[in-house]
Amino acid sequence: MSGEYFVFLLLAIVAIAGGVLLISLNKVMQMMLSLVLTFISIAGIYVMLSAEFVAIVQVMVYAGAIAILMIFGIMLTNHHDDSVKKAPLLRRLVILVSIIGFAVAIFIGIIGLEVPVDTTALYNNNTEKIGLALYSDYIIPFELASIVLLVALVGAIV
Fold this sequence. Notes:
Blueprint: H1 3-24, H2 28-48, H3 52-76, H4 89-111, H5 126-137, H6 139-157
């Protein structure tokens, strides 16, 4: 087992653990911190894939901005309902069987999957290639996305 494989397994386990903690914890602040843990471990996986730009954006946008915005939103709103009701046993069993069925379906779907391998230089000017592609080939979708986000922002303010 190589070091790269070990680091990947460690980051993947941390990301999955953060997701599981997110849905199993009761306190909202703890849930948000586990979400930040998941975002940071996913950024580590991006670094392993030689996508440093995407990793930095992941940390800045998601772990930084979105999570902090959610934390402030939670802190500034009133949450006094501390009574957490547990689902009935039958419902929990149905959810467990559904999760296991989904995992088996995904496993069957990807077990025989063959991905064609293209040789490409991954380490040469990653960020520059993203910028050139974004502002040359994909400038219209990029501008349309910014207009949609601006309209959503104005709509939220109104």
